Write the structure tokens for this entry.
Amino acid sequence: MTAVAALPDDVARVSHELPLRANLSALDNIALIPIYQGHFNVAESNRQAQQLLKQLGHADIATLRDPDMTPAQRFITKLARALILRRPRLVIDRPGAMLYDVPYPAFIRHLAAQAETTGTWEIFDFSWNQALYRA
Amino acid sequence: MNFLAASIESLGAKVVGWFTVGYGMFAFLAQAGLLLLEPATWNRATFDVVVKQVYFTAVQILHVFLGYALVISWLIITIILSTARDFGLTEFASEMAIRVLVLELLPFLTALFVALRSGSAINTEVALMQVNNELDALAHCKVPPMQFEFLPRLVGGVVSVVTLAGLAGLLALLMGYLAIYGVNAAGFEPYTRTIAKIFDFRIVAGLIFKCALFGLAVTLIPVTAGLETPKKLFMVPVSVLRGMMRVFFAIVAIEVVSLALKYI
């Protein structure tokens, strides 16, 4: 898994090693990126973040903070944060460590179908979990 | 002989440790200072965090703090007045009360108040961010932690301590007037003359500078102590303990140097 940590800067990562900022809501965690990278104002950044959550089918989690989220909601927020980075590659690092209470290959497939992204999505997982993806 | 060598080694290690901590703090402060001058730093998100910080550090506790300043001021003024009367030095009482309270005691107590309430919270929060990898996550998203997390805390701390000490000082001046002259305008002229005599430009500038240093001490030291925390959850209380001890020594050192510069 060192390989994942050493990925270049143009890769957006979703990993249990990259947590959300605990005292910010889901919306704030996502909106930070357009504010600091795109130099958008707060209202526009919030709108983009809300739009992304809506696209992923979870607009209702916008006000939740990390400790109040379920593992799936936390994963969706991390995914939205990675998507709003608009990097060409998105790597999901050991999804089983984040989505331990849902059948995650199907869950991620469903989210990927909803997200309107142009880049590639890659999943890094343990080899013994390969069978899960064939289902 | 072995004992002597071990003692010297231990002392040397401690001195090196103090220098490392001191260097780390000044390097952090220099980095923050440089960033403060960059116009790009002042985006809406950073400004919002500064406002939040000032709100949590100063506004939220304002009523408790002013009540506490009121009681302390009233007590100290009463003690000074009755002692001055006993020794026949009543004409010096107002100057003495203002000097003790407004220039020394209230800024010092304000710094302690903010350190205990906000400094410890900042230390804990930064240590937890460090342990939980939240800073790495921010860096991965290219959100600069210095700009988003630390600089607003430093600015907020300085603004809060200067403002709270100023408000407490004004309250003490009012208390002093009421205690000495009562509720009438008869003493307004001599009292304002005494105030004008004490508060020349040098004293006011020194007071603001001292409060700003207090504000920096109660935020900078907890932030750097939090960042030094090893990535182990059980080290968070140790980090807060170390940070708060350093804050206490820094506050006392600032006060002692300020007194020495003023009166020696």
Remarks:
- Chain B has one domain: 58-263.
- The mean pLDDT of chain B is 92.
- Residues 42 and 248 of chain B are 31 Å apart (CA to CA).
- DSSP finds nine helices and no strands in chain B.
